[in-house]
Amino acid sequence: MSSRWKLIDQPIGKDGILRACAWGGAEAYIPTPFKVNHAPCLTELNNGDLLAVWFAGYTEEGRRDIHIVMSRLLAGEERWSEPVKVSDDDTRSEQNPVLFQTAEGKLLLLYTAQETHEMSREEFKRLHPGKTFTRQETSVIRCRTSEDNGETWTPSETWFNNPGSFCRAPIFPLTDGSWLFPMWYSVSDGQTEYGSDYSVVQHSCDQGATWREYPVPGSRGRVHASIVGQEGDKLLAFFRSRAADRIYISRSPDAGRTWSEPERTPLPNNNASIRAIRLQSGAIAVIYNHASGGDDPQATVWPMTRYPVTIAISEDEGATWPFRRHLETGDNYCGEANERLNSRYEYPWITQSRDGLIHAAFAYGRRQGIKHLIVSENWVKGT
């Protein structure tokens, strides 16, 4: 696999150039002028280009300067482009972008847009008792579309305007041509600083013109659902857990109309984003931080640990995960007193290109940039 890229034996540069690594994969830092870079999404377009979108700005998540940006790796090329803004509401914080391209080539960009906070946490809590500092309960989900692979975009439209609407996974196309869109509602409960949330799955038979909502029962604190197809109408969904205990799984026997209550898998979760996909081999791959911070499914826990970045592979529909490989181990400071010294490698994303290679991306360090890695399924399995 490494023959396509130039092998390097020095630290990778932040120039967007893909270089082969001694361990057999390839990696690049996607160039960015922004101080904050978070929640990447990768997708391969119909023309072979690889697109990356994430949210970026100069202050912090939740502020009005946070917008969606996009970078492109042209098919056959080795350098990521400088990022460009693809959202433009300066009155809201725009976050959690996901991409979906139809078979006909229409490209959809969906993302969240929420009210901002422009003051310290302490001042906000004093002036707005009972409201969450994150303002996620004010979020809506918007969409922009492109007919030219993301070169130009239509004006944004609000697709889901119920307050608290949030997303982190793309549209999942069903075999009958209809779409599923997993999302969740973030609500202010008046008790906790971060509020509460629960998951639903939206279903559209007319390419997003109208939607019907199906709840995921018992999904309080189970968010960021990644849908994976099975035989016939059967589906799986893998969830982040606010309890920071385990990744959870739910099952649908009828193409997403009903779902089982999410149950624990063996994979740990640290109350951070995950992504699951079906590989071309038929196996399921999940990318996540291999760490946990609690064991009470009803609790809400926010551990600081967001490393290592790990890919796990299951060959029995998620029952067991015998193959696990770390992509990024972090700074390796040990002990509770040194935990604050470790950087965070957050919100990993995974996709597989048509040539069979696995592409991963995550917010690198302290959200200083986005790192892109390319590996093979055999490398993850150690074969």
From TrEMBL:
The Sialidase domain covers which part of the protein? Answer: 48-359
Fetch the SUPFAM superfamilies from UniProt.
Answer: Sialidases
| Superkingdom assignment | Bacteria
Indicate the transmembrane segments per the record: none
Q: Which residues form a coiled coil?
A: none
* Protein name as catalogued: Exo-alpha-sialidase
| Source species | Paenibacillus thalictri
